[in-house]
Amino acid sequence: MIVSILTDWFKRSNKSERLWLLAKIEFKLRYYENKLGLFWALIKPLMDIAIYYVVFQVIMKQNIPAFASYLFIGLIIWNFFLESTTGTVQILNTKKYLYEYSNMNKLEIYVSTLLSNSIGFFFNFIMFLLFFNFIERGTSHSNLQTLWIIPLFINLYMLALATSLIISNIYVIAKDITQIWQVFTQVLFFLSPILYNLDKFKEALPTFDYLNPLAGIIINARKITMEGTSPDLKLFMFDFGYAVLLLIFGLFLLNKLGSKAAEKL
């Protein structure tokens, strides 16, 4: 059943062109009539950084080197995951016209939506590199290890896609998932090493970096960009494994529940 979804998608022609076109349209609509355009994608993490910097560095005195950059990379990873999942809870309803009145595969709708979020992610990532290397000037600088961001982002993308598939298909039969997901993401945010010193995080929650795939991605992203070292490969393999398993489950739900979405929503 899962294989049939993927086979159907791979058989279709002009997949790349269609996905990219949908992603561009989605991205342009998000910032339509905004004079600052793409910079709105940067404003939110900057505002979050300002708030958390004052609370955790000035008031609580975490004393983390290059704390603004430390927050920056953590928040752009978190924001991509949050926007990609909360923004797709009702996607089978809001974009019903795409799969009902065209030959689009449902999976393409998810992939193109997350691709549009990817544009904002890489814009913010470039801003982060400029900030860390030329403005905050940490104790180390980014080097070729930074290229590890590509497999790390693929891992993040797969995790966000899998989660989107799961919660949006559950929404078909249980609308309460919207409220549940809002609460869950708040808990997940504070159980991820976005705001805290990593040593204190590991001391308070031993092995939790292996149980929370987002935590592992954030930790490895800081290692490759801020420390200029290789990622923790064991942690990376755990995170990738989580993403694959969740993606298989998400595709299973899409096959079981997604086919009934047009009738139920």
UniProtKB/TrEMBL annotation:
GO biological process, any: lipopolysaccharide transport
Record's subcellular location: Cell inner membrane; Cell membrane
Topology in membrane: Multi-pass membrane protein
The keyword tRNA-binding is assigned to this record: no
Keyword Transport belongs to the record: yes
InterPro entries to which the protein is assigned, alphabetical: ABC2_TM, ABC2_TM_bact-type
Any single Pfam family the record assigns to this protein: ABC2_membrane
All residue ranges annotated as the ABC transmembrane type-2 domain in the record: 36-257
Keywords: Cell inner membrane, Cell membrane, Membrane, Transmembrane, Transmembrane helix, Transport
One Gene Ontology molecular-function label: ABC-type transporter activity
Transmembrane segments: 37-55, 67-89, 109-135, 147-174, 180-198, 235-254
GO cellular component: plasma membrane
Record-linked PANTHER family: INNER MEMBRANE TRANSPORT PERMEASE (PTHR30413), TRANSPORT PERMEASE PROTEIN (PTHR30413:SF8)
Sequence similarity: Belongs to the ABC-2 integral membrane protein family.
Designated name of the protein: Transport permease protein
Species the sequence originates in: Niastella populi
